Amino acid sequence: MATPGPLRRAYDWTAAHAPWSAWAWRNTALVVAAVPVAVPVVLALAYTFSNPGHILKTLGFVLLLNPLLTRLQRSRFWSLTGLDIPKIPWARPWYRWGGLIPRLRAESTWRQYGYHLVVSPLAAVGGALVVLGWATGAAFAFIYSWVWALPVSARPTGWTGGYVAFTILGVLLLIATPWFAALVAALDSRAAVVLLGPNRAKELERRVEDLAESRADILDAADLERRRIERDLHDGAQQRLVSLAMNLGIARATLTDLPPEARAVIDEAHREAKEAIEELSNLVRGLHPAVLEDRGLDAAISGIAARAPFPVELTVDLAERPSPTVEAVAYFVVSETLANVAKHARATRCSVQVRRRAQLLTITVGDNGVGGADPAGGTGLLGLRKRVGSVDGTIRINSPHGGPTVITVELPCGL
After folding, report:
1. Rounded Cα gap, residues 261 and 79, in angstroms
2. How far apart are CA 113 and CA 95, in angstroms?
3. Which residues contact 277 (CB under 8 A, 6 or more apart)?
4. Nearest-angstrom CA–CA distance, 123 and 131
5. Among 47-61, 199-213, 214-228, where is mean pLDDT lowest?
6. DSSP 272
7. 409 phi, psi to nearest 5 deg
8. Could you give the count of Cα atoms lying within 13 Å of 333 in the half-sphere of its Cβ?
């Protein structure tokens, strides 16, 4: 499909913004519709100016009409432009017990109040000027038609050349009025979104809180599922493998008259069963160690440190146990970090410090290895960063080439 040239684009733009276009009439309809909605407020303000002593009555009257006026304004924007201004959720209707006072104290009510007292009358004035502009422009632009429609005897002398200026002025008004209507509509729409709808900052804060709660629920559900899988493996498949290994061991010890080939098969099966038990135990421990749930983070990390192939200096200072989700993340952080040190760092010693201060759990793991740890170079540290980020934690890696490496993880305990 060929791209339209400059003349075609100019023509399309002019046609889309001409006085007879849908754009012009849509903006005109929006600003003109603001006039009847603002009539009660304008009358109340006019009454106040003529009777200054009754200002409180006027303000109270507008406040009483606030819900109805807000509903009418939302309907005006939605029906004429498709602009959806969200409603403000309330726990209770205003006419029920405990519903009126919170609504009067809410800042959203006073934002709406300000729109109806200030913006709505100004929009109505703009709508009246738009109507006046269209009417005056049409009257002036077609003034020759009006004069020509008069009887010949009633026409003024020299009229064929005397109304050129009026015609030009009318055409200019017809061209300018749609743009003025568009300006009023844009300002009115912007003010309506800000003042009639929910507070965007508070709405975003509420959505963030909802997302945080949803994520916490998902993490708890995943942790419970890991515990269920660990329990099923420990009580089911692992016990069956232990029973199989025991039966094979008994068979190897008692069936001494079997051919060498059969004994070799039994020995091989017994060895593989024991290896499967060991692998399954490591898998179960990696899913969710029972000692973490029973005795806490200190005992679970101590078990990791004891199994490390190098000396580990462990310091744990926990005045209070964190939540199970944070506790599980802390356990896997230490486990994965020590595994990475054993695989890549070529370290001879390592230190692990776990401290809780208020609502922050800090884990510091350092080693005297070769350094050069880079999250972009493998999946270990990248997975560690994702696991820490799942609970809004932070991780800092200081690992220059030649070492030492220090990894600091901070986890919020309020999750």
Report:
1. 88
2. 18
3. 238, 241, 242, 245
4. 12
5. 214-228
6. H
7. -125, 135
8. 33
How far apart CA 146 and CA 167 sit, in angstroms, is: 12
Q: For residues 88 and 198, is the Cβ–Cβ distance under 8 A? A: yes
pLDDT tens readout for residues 344-381? 888 888 888 888 888 888 999 988 888 887 776 655 67
What type of residue sits at position 267? D
Confidence grade of residue 1 (pLDDT, cut at 50, 70, 90): very low
Q: Give the H or E element holding residue 220.
A: helix 200-232
User: Which of 359, 360, 232 lies closest to 288 in space, CA to CA?
Assistant: 232
Name which of 212, 166, 262, 186 is nearest 23 in CA terms: 186
pTM for the whole structure? 0.51
Exposed, middle or buried by CB within 10 Å (0-12, 13-18, 19+), for 110?
middle
Which CA distances in Å does 305 have to 293, 298, 302, 316, 368? 18, 11, 5, 12, 16
- If you search the block for the tokens 């077609």, which residue do you land on? 142
Helix intervals (H) in 288-378 = 290-295, 297-307, 324-340
> Which pLDDT does position 3 carry in this prediction?
54
Are the beta carbons of 131 and 173 closer than 8 angstroms?
Answer: no
Output the pLDDT for position 372: 80
Distances (CA, A) of 130 to 52, 126, 127, 236, 332: 31, 6, 5, 80, 68
Residues across the chain: 415
| Cis before 324 (ω within 30) | no
Q: Is the dihedral of CA 184, 185, 188, 194 positive or negative?
A: negative
Helix then strand then coil, in percent of the chain rounded to 5, is: 70, 10, 20
> Which tokens is 119 given?
């913006």
In this structure, are strands 312-317 and 350-357 parallel, antiparallel, or unpaired?
parallel
Cα separation of 64 and 259, whole Å?
Answer: 101
Sign of the Cα pseudo-torsion (286, 287, 293, 298, in order): positive
Collapse the DSSP code of 383 into the 3-class scheme (helix H, G, I; strand E, B; otherwise coil) and give the result.
Answer: helix
Query: Which tokens in the block code for residue 350?
Result: 């390592």
